[in-house]
Design brief:
This protein has 224 residues and is of the alpha/beta class. The chain has two domains: 9-156, P-loop containing nucleotide triphosphate hydrolases (Rossmann fold, 3-Layer(aba) Sandwich), CATH 3.40.50; 162-221. The protein has nine helices and six strands. The protein has a six-stranded mixed sheet. Helix 5 (121-129) links the parallel strand 4 (103-108) and strand 5. Helix 1 (26-40) packs across helix 2, helix 4 runs parallel beside helix 5 (121-129) and helix 6 (162-176) runs parallel beside helix 8. The radius of gyration is 19 Å and the shape is globular.
Length: 224
Amino acid sequence: MAAADADPLTFLRVRELTWLDLVLPDDTITELRALGSLATGGGLAAVVAGPRGVGKTIAVRALAEQLRLDTWLVDCRLLVELHGESTPASLPDVLSVAERPHAVVLFHDAEWLFEPAAGAAGPRLVELARRRLPPTVLETRASELLRGTAGLPRVDIPFPGEEARAELWRRLAWRAHPLAELDVARLAAFPVAGAAIEQALDHAVDDAGGAEPDTARLLAVLGI
């Protein structure tokens, strides 16, 4: 159960992301860029969906960067734990917070708003989001259509294939430790997404006392 003083909102400042920072298929990036074009013409409510750890949040932050906006991240699980069936009544206040700095509002794990415990929060959010500026994005791991979102633009972030995983290993390894020399082809053969790769690198560097991680240690961290 969430503490009464827990805050489901986190402010994420612009971090100079570009579309080149995303390791995603070209057609997925094209769809994300199209959301930005929609937003410049007025309000935007959209869904970004995909498995855990594939880069949904970073993709939305790149969208916010395209619009030169910051991002408010709303932890939907925490929001529902705090407000329960009164969650729909809390949504206008949540959205109004983002009006002051004029930021994208990212509802993280939005599927929680469509659970019975949240009352009618999901449909209520869709109703409010259609009428507001700046953009609102529902981020979800749910593969099925969220109730009431059928008319919203939707971008599906795919699980990375082997070639994309190799690129993720190269980029994230350089960020974690520029001197790391890894068997990227061997690591990329195993189906793990970007967030798991980043966590494995962090753990491996910590285990090595700050030294460069090696392939064997990374495979051990991943339980392979």
